From TrEMBL:
One of its GO terms (biological process) is DNA-templated transcription initiation. The gene is rpoN. It comes from the Bacteria. Belongs to the sigma-54 factor family. PANTHER family: RNA POLYMERASE SIGMA-54 FACTOR. InterPro entries: RNA_pol_sigma_54 (IPR000394), RNA_pol_sigma_54_core-bd (IPR007046), RNA_pol_sigma_54_DNA-bd (IPR007634), RpoN_core-bd_sf (IPR038709). GO terms for molecular function: DNA binding; DNA-binding transcription activator activity; nucleotidyltransferase activity; sigma factor activity. This is RNA polymerase factor sigma-54. GO terms for cellular component: DNA-directed RNA polymerase complex. Residues 83-271 form the RNA polymerase sigma factor 54 core-binding domain. Transmembrane segments: none annotated.
Length: 444
């Protein structure tokens, strides 16, 4: 009998440990937002668990979500249609258009329809839905919708209301003074050839030289392909706050956890005192107390693991923290797991959707991991460093005789002793949004 009781207790303990371990693993992989949601949900189900709301300091969130992702080293947009970095107006595109509609000659009914039509406008300012479909939805004629959209296309910013990129650029070109009729003709009739930089074909068709085609290209790439993008979206901007902070103090760095973003867990004293009573409530509260204790332990495990992993990343990437992103070294999850004597999957969970504030900005922990390629003096270079080299070589090239992928490969192999294939160079160039040599060639 004693044996069966002992076996039951052992099995119960093993089950409890399994549940606790599973919970610790789950909490480790949660992002901050997921963790906060989980804790709030648990506090609603557990009367013993009280949460003290975090006091998030917004100044730690250095920018909006889309701006916080570290820029890929060497990313360039000089060879493709780029978006101007306009300042935000503090109002939505719809609001801005609504104000302009008041000054048009449209009837009251048409203005009301116009307000409904701009609801079909995407964040870039395009109305891609067919007029006939919009007319059916608004229970009016296609002719009326087409007339109103034509009026919208005359509003600011230039290019809004367009069906696509081609029309958007044309609308902007036609407002320029003096008009460039040749550029308009090329965009209207040979947009695909222009986008593919088929300069020789266009030059022959329009009986002009390559320098003139190049000048038209230079004028068009200055236009804004997303005119609506300069305005606030309806959705409020989201912010990312760092899970960890790395600060430099004299000759060393300190890793700390950002405690202000996670709610503090406290045991409800009133319910805890009820545990002393001998009734059915005691059993229920005992179970809830155990659950609460598991969560507290899992939270401590999460904190400890995050700090330890970040400290090892700091040690491995000293050159980055001392000199900046250009000095990022090759590093794998296995490298960190070996140093900490933990499983690689644990490191993966600890770095998933976790962010660290550094002297060089906010970075996702995954950013610090990349494979290496052998380089000069048998020193490994990270893929990001090689990408930067590719970008620098292209920046310095003769624009009238741009380097092919094979030529870039040869330079990396001979001058930098980096073992790399032409296919990998082409892949890195694509990652950097840099077109091929034929697309980079200039004729001026």
């Amino acid at each position: 009998m004693k044996q069966s009781v002992g076996l039951y207790q052992e099995q119960s303990l093993r089950l409890a440990m399994t549940q606790e371990l599973k919970q610790a693993i789950t909490l480790l992989q949660y992002s901050t937002l997921e963790l906060v949601d989980f804790l709030k949900e648990q506090s609603l189900e557990n009367p013993l668990m009280d949460l003290k709301e975090p006091s998030i300091h917004r100044e730690l969130a250095s920018s909006r979500v889309q701006r916080l992702k570290p820029k890929k080293i060497g990313t360039t947009t000089t060879q493709t249609f780029s978006i101007e970095n306009f300042s935000k107006h503090g109002e939505t595109l719809h609001q801005y258009i609504d104000q302009q509609l008041l000054d048009t000659n449209m009837t009251t009914e048409e203005k009301q329809l116009a307000k409904r039509i701009i609801e079909h406008m995407d964040e870039n300012g395009y109305i891609q839905e067919e007029p006939v479909a919009i007319a059916e939805q608004l229970k009016t004629t296609t002719q009326t919708i087409t007339k109103i959209i034509t009026t919208i296309k005359q509003l600011e910013p230039a290019g809004i209301g367009a069906r696509n990129l081609q029309e958007c650029l044309l609308l902007q070109l036609k407002r320029k003074s003096p008009r460039n009729e040749l550029a308009e003709a090329i965009l209207e009739n040979d947009f695909t050839l222009f986008a593919e930089k088929a300069w020789k074909t266009l030059a022959k068709k329009y009986e002009i030289n390559l320098k003139e085609i190049q000048a038209i290209h230079d004028e068009i790439v200055k236009l804004n392909p997303r005119p609506g993008n300069r305005y606030e979206t309806v959705e409020k901007p989201k912010y990312i706050t760092p899970d960890l902070i790395v600060q430099r103090q004299q000759n060393h760095f300190i890793v700390s956890l950002n405690e202000e973003i996670i709610p503090q867990i406290k045991i409800n004293k009133q319910y805890e005192s009820a545990l002393k009573s001998k009734n059915e409530l005691e059993s229920y509260l005992q179970e809830k107390l155990q659950q609460c204790q598991w969560i507290v332990k899992s939270m401590e495990h999460r904190k400890h693991t995050l700090v330890k992993v970040m400290e090892e990343i700091l040690q491995a990437q000293q050159s980055f923290f001392l000199n900046g992103p250009s000095f990022l070294k090759p590093l794998t999850l296995k490298d960190i797991s070996t140093r900490l004597e933990i499983h690689e999957s644990t490191v993966s969970r600890a770095t998933k959707e976790k962010y660290v504030q550094t002297p060089y900005g906010l970075f996702e922990l995954k950013y610090f991991f990349s494979q290496g390629l052998s380089g000069k003096h048998d020193e490994e270079k990270s893929t990001k460093q090689v990408q930067q080299l590719v970008e620098e070589l292209i920046k310095k090239e003769d624009k009238q005789k741009p380097l092919s992928d094979q030529q870039l490969t040869n330079i990396l192999q001979k001058q930098y002793h980096i073992t790399i294939s032409r296919r990998t160079v082409a892949k890195y160039r694509d990652i950097l949004n840099i077109p091929g040599s034929s697309m980079r060639k200039r004729y001026d």
